[in-house]
Design a protein that fits this description.
The chain is α/β, with parallel strands linked by helices. The protein is built from eleven helices and twelve strands. The strands form two sheets. It has a ten-stranded mixed sheet, sandwiched between helices. Strands 6-7 form a two-stranded antiparallel ribbon. The protein binds 1,4-dihydronicotinamide adenine dinucleotide.
Length: 335
Amino acid sequence: MHNITLIPGDGIGPEVAFAVKEIIESTGVKINWEIKDAGDKAFRAVGNPLPDEVIQSVLKNKVALKGPVTTPIGTGFRSVNVALRKELGLYANLRPMKNLPGIETPFNNVDLVVVRENTEDLYAGIECKVDAGRAEAIKLITKDASEKIGYFAFSYAQKMGRKKVTAVHKANILKISDGLFLESIREIREQFPDIEYEEMIIDNLCMQLVQRPEKFDVLVLPNFYGDIVSDLCAGLVGGLGLVPGANIGDSYSVFEAVHGSALDIAGKNMANPLALLNSAVLMLKHIDEVQAAENIERAINWILNHKEKLTPDLGGRGTTTSLTRDLCEYIKENL
Ligand code: NAI
């Protein structure tokens, strides 16, 4: 029996989170879910978007599956995602992106992994209003965090049999901050002589990603560029409704979808749970439930080839509940 914290989140969060819980349960894996609210719902209930009991639950269980949470723009409400990553030391954001069967995009042979530094850069939250007409945000880059993410990217590449790591930067302009990031990654790469290494300026990377995405393998980026590039890469393989994400630290891991709370479709039974389900596949592998993870992967590949069963964002006529039921039935029949 595994103990896992489930944070359903806001908007479509509960719809996709409970769908994924049901699909995982159909594999027979035994999980004791500790359900905790964070985000807008928690803020309205207890005045805090990230109540301490959520943190305590993840500290105890070490693993969490999290739906998207709403972050109101321009208010004092601090991003729950950013706070969670900082509180739990989840310094690496991992997003594997691969072409999927049945999902046609203009890009073929995409099979890359975005490794994004998760704790600092412009998201360190060091922002202030200087005067009525001026605001500042500080881009914090440290050698320690850059080395850690570099080590994570290279060891991940080595463990997964990947060939190349590309470090992404803008050190031609941000010579000191991005310069330090690059210098730290260069030092780390010395420990991994078997992995090919290249460096690329962020704007060039964006162009090349939409011209020849197949040439990239593992990308390692500071937080801000990583945030944007991971959504760009999600677009290469079919969009936010599909790709998984994981936030990993030395002791704790939070698995989540890349997409947001999609308030425009919340409550309409249209939300696509596959992104969170793909994140759950990463989670199951992480807790050594490889068989269950592979059963779910097979079911996902099967349903992607039955377009009519998919949700409208993927061109189908299915609903969140019908897709969940179809996946559960397929898994139980093919165990
Ligand atoms: P969003 O990802 O919620 O929505 C963008 C578009 O994609 C919308 O048209 C939406 O309907 C569609 N979409 C997203 N996920 C989908 C799914 N699973 N199935 C079907 N369609 C889906 O991005 P948006 O609108 O920029 O953000 C809404 C809220 O979510 C904001 O408060 C934002 O801060 C928050 N957010 C939270 C994240 C998280 O908790 N990890 C990540 C990104 C945004």
